[in-house]
Prior knowledge:
alpha+beta; CATH 2.40.50; 2 domains; 29% strand
Amino acid sequence: MVTRIGRSTLVAGAVVSAIVISSLTMTGSGQTAGNNPVRRGSDGKPDFSGIWQAMNTANWDLLAHQARRGTVIALGAAFSIPAGPGVVEGNEIPYLPVALAKKKENAENWLTRDPEIKCFMPGVPRMIYMPYPFQIAQSKDTIFMASEFASASRTIRMNSKEKSAADSWMGWSIGHWDGDTLVIEVTDQIDQTWFDRAGDFHSDALRVVERYAPIDGNTINYEATIEDPNVFSRPWKITMPLYRHVEKNAQLMEYKCVEFVEELMYGHLRKQPVALQDNGSGNAGVIGCISREGAGQPAFTVTDKRSTPPLKYRLDGDAEALRMHVGHTVELKGRISLASNRENGNDTPLLPTLSVQSLTYVSTTCAK
């Protein structure tokens, strides 16, 4: 529930953001700002070569939003959602009714659906405002942009009539200059990327027109107008400043995240399925759906469907917490034992038992 204070905070934040953006736009003529003139190339156009980064919470949610607890409860404040005034003009994304329902479904299943979690390339415009820097290398006919995230990159062909051979994660970018503003039209993106972690999405009919207007030598006013008649009822726009990294050792580092998601995405293909092994301490974990089975005093169980065949465990832990998550997909960590699940002196283990030490909510639904 949004409280009165919460609403006031969001409105005030949006107003301040609008004032700042307005002032940036007014000074964004591409001339000078104080003692920090716009850098220019040999052709007289602004030279954006360097390392840039957005400083906002747009990757969490493009719209104005309050701080709230994250989906991964075990991470507490370390991965909860920070508040943000929003970057969408008018603070509204004009979804068509069916698309709005899908957006809400995406948000409810963020942990299993967001392509960022799987280390897929982010697409445009998300590449610009992810919490990672990106580098621009500029020449007269070609501009190259590379993100630290997943080694994602794009090439902007200036004043070109060349067409894309096929749709791709990062699309097809054609640029031109409008005075001192770099204008880039991006088409031919596949429909698998999202705009943020809030489930905002698009179809393969997406068209993005970006505008990079210099404010001073170290600041760009960035705008992106988004059109997609399959998802939105009208075009809409996001606006934000981008800041140049000016550290002496500023450089783009490597964040090749593919190896970090291999177990998440492909662990179920192992010939000998294993739990999410810890560091050899005997602790392990599973990701699966909690059920309650049996008569009298039914036992809680979880089935790890990442493994083939699926591995089933009996659960020993906080009964109330387990009861609340029956029918939910969760990640459980603890110690696995074969000796604690025997009945009436029978030495045959019925099921391995997981003594639950931590429970992390993943989804309200159970994967089929």
